[in-house]
Recover the amino acids of this structure.
């Protein structure tokens, strides 16, 4: 198998050496170039044709976010961002993910190899998974046409994703009307980034976006985000259904777990569910299977591109630009 070629972009000589040294220790990963900023990176991208780029958010001159936006417009490619751990850094992380970055890692506070040991395994998995990924241009957060209001049929929408799903989530929820179906989201993000994500979505989309709390009744026109940390988010069988936070062990390495949320909806709501899985990986598979068993609608990524809708023996391909329209159709009379 050919090695995954990586270009490292950071204005700090020390950080370039630190990141490239860590990457070179990952099997089948080759650092093909180092750039100190956007101008040098432009030339190296054309000459070296890397599979993946690591990019510093906070660079002088053309910032990492500015260059990422440019890159996704002219030559989309998998980009992994490095950012600070500050509140401003969390906001930058959300913007980077919205623009199309596949992951964003905290920049080490101290430029020593031991600091990168904490993330090296996950970084390696991200780089290898990113190779050959099909990417599309990012849209402006204000550019989505809001679809017409719906006559809700009672179905509940559950969405599962990871950091790389951020752009799709902005596109999808940005198209929802203010009276969208009750929507519950489990997205694998760290705590500060999740809070920033909820805040930005609530400002940008027509519906209300909140961090889920134990005992909340799910309502039309609201989007509930699972809080990261120590609990799984589930839906109980009360009338109306309510959100519950359960302190349980991680499932498929995740807490909160996509599968746990999906399975709880299969039990409590049954066929009146639409499960939308945006990411690949272990978390989400068993939950989507539970929804299928309860005759719910299941949507997952299609290896050929876009998504695949299934219910019982029926399957239908969905191109990504039509995803929001199809989801709202399933939740409308």
């Amino acid at each position: 198998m050919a090695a995954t070629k990586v270009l490292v972009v950071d204005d700090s000589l020390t950080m370039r050496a630190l990141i490239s040294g860590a990457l070179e220790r990952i099997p089948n990963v080759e650092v093909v170039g180092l750039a100190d900023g956007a101008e040098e990176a432009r030339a190296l991208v054309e000459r070296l044709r890397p599979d993946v780029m690591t990019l510093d958010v906070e660079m002088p001159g053309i910032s990492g976010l500015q260059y990422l936006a440019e890159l996704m417009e002219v030559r989309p490619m998998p980009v992994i961002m490095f950012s600070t751990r500050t509140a401003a850094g969390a906001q930058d992380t959300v913007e980077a993910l919205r623009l199309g970055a596949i992951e964003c890692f905290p920049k080490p506070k101290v430029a020593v190899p031991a600091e990168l040991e904490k993330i090296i395994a996950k970084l390696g998995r991200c780089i290898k998974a990113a190779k050959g990924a099909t990417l599309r241009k990012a849209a402006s957060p204000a550019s989505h046409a809001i679809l017409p209001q719906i006559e809700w049929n009672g179905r509940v929408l559950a969405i599962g994703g990871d950091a790389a799903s951020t752009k799709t989530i902005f596109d999808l929820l940005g198209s929802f009307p203010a009276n969208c179906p009750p929507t519950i989201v489990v997205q694998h993000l760290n705590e500060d980034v999740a809070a920033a994500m909820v805040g930005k979505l609530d400002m940008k989309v027509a519906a209300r976006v909140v961090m889920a709390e134990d005992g909340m009744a799910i309502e039309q026109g609201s989007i509930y985000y699972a809080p990261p940390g120590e609990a799984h988010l589930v839906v109980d069988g009360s009338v109306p259904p309510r959100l519950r936070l359960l302190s349980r062990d991680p499932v498929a390495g995740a807490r909160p777990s996509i599968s746990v949320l999906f399975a709880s909806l299969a039990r409590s709501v049954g066929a009146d569910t639409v499960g939308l899985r945006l990411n690949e990986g272990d978390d989400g598979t068993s939950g989507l299977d539970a929804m299928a068993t309860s005759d719910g609608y299941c949507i997952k990524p299609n290896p050929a591109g876009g998504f695949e809708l299934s219910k019982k023996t029926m399957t239908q391909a969905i191109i990504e630009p039509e995803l929001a329209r199809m989801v709202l159709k399933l939740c409308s009379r």
Notes: The CA atoms of residues 249 and 255 lie 7 Å apart. The two ends are 50 Å apart (CA to CA). The chain has a mean pLDDT of 92. The domain at 4-130 is CATH 3.40.50.2300 (Rossmann fold).
